[in-house]
Amino acid sequence: MHTTPRRTHGTGRALTGALLAGLTLLTSAGAAVADDPSASASPAEDEAGPTEAGTTFRTATALKQDQTGIAHASAGDYLYWVFPADAGQRPTVTATVKLPENAARRSTSTWQIDVYDGLRRRQACMYGHQTRKAAADAATVELSCVLRPVRAWSEPWANDPLPGSYYVRLTVVDLPADELGLPVGAEVKATVQEQGGAHDVDGALSEPLVPGVSVASAGDASDTGDAGTPRVPSAGEPEDGWASGWWTDRWLWTAGGGVLAALAAVFGYSLTRGRGRPAHVPPRV
Questions:
Q1: Alpha-carbon distance 272 to 266, whole Å?
Q2: Among residues 125, 166, 159, which one has the least CA distance to residue 143?
Q3: What's the sign of the alpha-carbon dihedral 238, 241, 243, 246?
Q4: Alpha carbons 160 and 151: distance in angstroms, whole number
Q5: Letter string b/e over residues 80-91, b meaning 16 or more CB atoms within 10 A of that residue's CB
Q6: CA 284 to centroid of chain Cα atoms
């Protein structure tokens, strides 16, 4: 008696292997995107940063991402810089203060770095050394502040970081009056790290939180004489524009999920379609 070869189990095993292989590939690819340094913001080319700092929000010195700004000032001055941060990025601000010589100082000092968004709301640091004391014999003091990931949209009552300009303020908060005015040096650097689709939201701001961006946009729209002139990014704006990166790892998970769903459908069909007509049964005429 002839029997039909049982290919159902073979097909099931093959499709099961394909499912597992696809799942493994998807998981490893997602982890590679998350761990690959190239997925984060690539460092800007080494170029000379600004050599001065502003003294108010309005006069803040513009910094590019991954660019170091230096300044020479007096102890007690408020120093301001501004840099851009877009949706999906997590900014990190570091500062190094070079203190005067030991002969000119006789007491400890406390230095602090604060970060404000485009609405001048003070943003809390996830971690870092936002405030630090410097001993009387210290040569430098280092500060850091890691902000929360920037969201593309938020509720009006929330204090979430949003795309736009971020102001850095560096100053001494505890110093004897007779030591105010001593010369100090400062180095500030703002870096960003791409966080991927884990922080994507279903919404976006109509304009980034940059002072004067609405007026600038209206002026660009009404100006018809320079239609062929390439647009130059303003100070405090990313070189490639706001929210220019459309790629997130959600595209990878979406495509991988579609492939796994198709394989699962084929596998389910192979299990439910039966073994077919036995070889010894003649076909119907």
A1: 10
A2: 125
A3: negative
A4: 7
A5: bbbbbbbbbbbb
A6: 67
* CA separation for the pair 223, 53 (Å, rounded): 32
- Burial of residue 69 (number of CB atoms within 10 Å: 0-12, 13-18, 19+): buried
Q: Dihedral sign, CA of 9, 10, 11, 17?
A: positive
Q: Which ranges of the chain does DSSP label H, i.e. alpha helix?
A: 8-35, 213-222, 249-272
Straight-line distance from the first to the last Cα atom of the chain, in angstroms, rounded to the nearest whole number: 22
| C-alpha–C-alpha distance, residues 151 and 148, integer Å | 9
Query: Is beta strand 79-85 parallel, antiparallel or unpaired with respect to 61-62?
Result: parallel
Residue type, 50: P
Is-contact 95 113, C-beta < 8 A? yes
pLDDT, one tens digit for every residue, the chain (285 residues): 444 444 445 555 555 555 555 555 555 544 444 444 443 444 444 567 899 999 999 999 999 999 999 999 999 999 999 999 988 899 999 999 999 887 678 889 999 999 999 899 999 999 999 999 999 889 999 999 999 999 888 787 888 899 999 999 999 999 989 889 999 999 999 999 887 666 666 666 767 788 765 444 444 444 444 444 444 445 566 766 676 555 566 677 778 888 899 999 888 888 887 777 777 778 776
Give the H/E segment covering residue 62: strand 61-62
What 8-state DSSP symbol labels residue 266? H
* CA atoms within a 13 Å half-sphere pointing along the CA-CB vector of 64: 18
pTM for the complete prediction? Answer: 0.68
Dist. CA 34–CA 210, nearest whole Å: 29
